[in-house]
Amino acid sequence: MQKKPYKRVQSLIKALLQEAAVDRAHAAMEILKIGSDAKEAVPALIEVLKDEDLGVRRCAAEALGQIGSEAQEPIPALIEVLKDKNLCVRLFAAHAGVQIGSEVKAAVPALQEISEDSDLMVYWAAQEALDAILAS
Question: I need a surface site. Which of 15, 21, 47, 59 has the fewest CB within 10 A?
Fold first, then answer.
């Protein structure tokens, strides 16, 4: 018998495909709450990182970070999101890098680039991610 989170995660993966951005963002935030038990949602969250809605992209990055080290697949996609036009999306992508852990060494060049961001919050998030990665 499957664990209870599995069925919930499957329905949330389907919700990530909804037409309304608010529904997609809500699904990503619910996946965030489940955390590492939602690792089967990683491929869908990677796709959502490309969403046209910045709130949806931000929520997907945050959810991937909460899944943590179970979320190794999204590292290339997170590197791209570090270049997002929206500072909030960049900020959450950098935080996701911290939460995923030392396995995101491939993100170091992109994090170094955004550590020069004019927004102080993005700068500090990038620095925190770099410190976590390089300390391991």
Answer: 47
